[in-house]
Amino acid sequence: MKLLHIDSSISGAQSVSRTLTAEIVKCQKALHPGIEVVYRDLAADPALHLSHAHVDAWTGGTVEGAALSCDLETGEEYLAELFVADIIVIGAPMYNFSVPSQLKAWIDRIVVEGQTFEYSESGELQTFLPSAKKVIIASTRGNVYQPGTPTAAHEHHESYLLTVFSFLGLHDVTVVRAEGLAFGPDTRDAAISKARFAIATIAV
Ligand SMILES: Cc1cc2nc3c(=O)[nH]c(=O)nc-3n(C[C@H](O)[C@H](O)[C@H](O)COP(=O)(O)O)c2cc1C
């Protein structure tokens, strides 16, 4: 079995999502002895934003420069890692109501027409990833965005990630959430404890 572990927080050792993904991976390793883990720290080593040069290269144009060439290779590696992973663990802090731009840059490399999806001539969506993958998202945010609250409409974070994975045909998605992290130490500690409890109950 293979597990793809992705972190995207810019907060280093203080990061709650990094703590949670580490714990998820530890639990999954205990559940699946021998599971092979591939780790990507997208904050430390982000992909470039897509540019006209990328589109040019994808459509048969010349690849200009070592940086672009290396970045295109990274994109291919992201795809290869995703195709073979049985479990995908993603650390996803909320930044300005959505995901970190580094995580978005990863998404831009895995949602690729002709590689992970395609539309038929009649407009039907076809997806190419093996669907028997488990996705576990460690969602962290300062505020709370529960349905029915005034802030619910600001939530473009978990809902966005769920849209992405559903679009790719991956429907087995578990969200482990720690929110209200900006509300002071008591709420923060309670939110993290709740997320830790949820992690311990995930059995894949
Ligand atoms: C640049 C930045 C933007 C943020 N934007 C939001 C936001 O829009 N909504 C929110 O609830 N929290 C926001 N936060 C708070 C983070 O979601 C919260 O600190 C969370 O713990 C981040 O996860 P991490 O500890 O893994 O970095 C933001 C934090 C940073 C650093």
UniProtKB/TrEMBL annotation:
Cofactor: FMN
InterPro entries xrefs: Flavodoxin_fold, Flavoprotein-like_sf, FMN-dep_NADH:Q_OxRdtase_AzoR1, NADH:quinone_OxRdtase_FMN_depd
Residue ranges constituting the Flavodoxin-like fold domain according to the UniProt record: 1-197
Reaction(s) this enzyme catalyzes, per UniProt: N,N-dimethyl-1,4-phenylenediamine + anthranilate + 2 NAD(+) = 2-(4-dimethylaminophenyl)diazenylbenzoate + 2 NADH + 2 H(+); 2 a quinone + NADH + H(+) = 2 a 1,4-benzosemiquinone + NAD(+)
Residues annotated to bind FMN: S9, S15, V16, S17, M94, Y95, N96, F97
Gene Ontology MF annotations: electron transfer activity; FMN binding; oxidoreductase activity, acting on NAD(P)H as acceptor; oxidoreductase activity, acting on NAD(P)H, quinone or similar compound as acceptor
Gene3D superfamilies: 3.40.50.360
Subunit structure: Homodimer.
PANTHER family, A to Z: FMN-DEPENDENT NADH-AZOREDUCTASE 1 (PTHR43741), FMN-DEPENDENT NADH:QUINONE OXIDOREDUCTASE (PTHR43741:SF4)
Name of the protein: FMN dependent NADH:quinone oxidoreductase
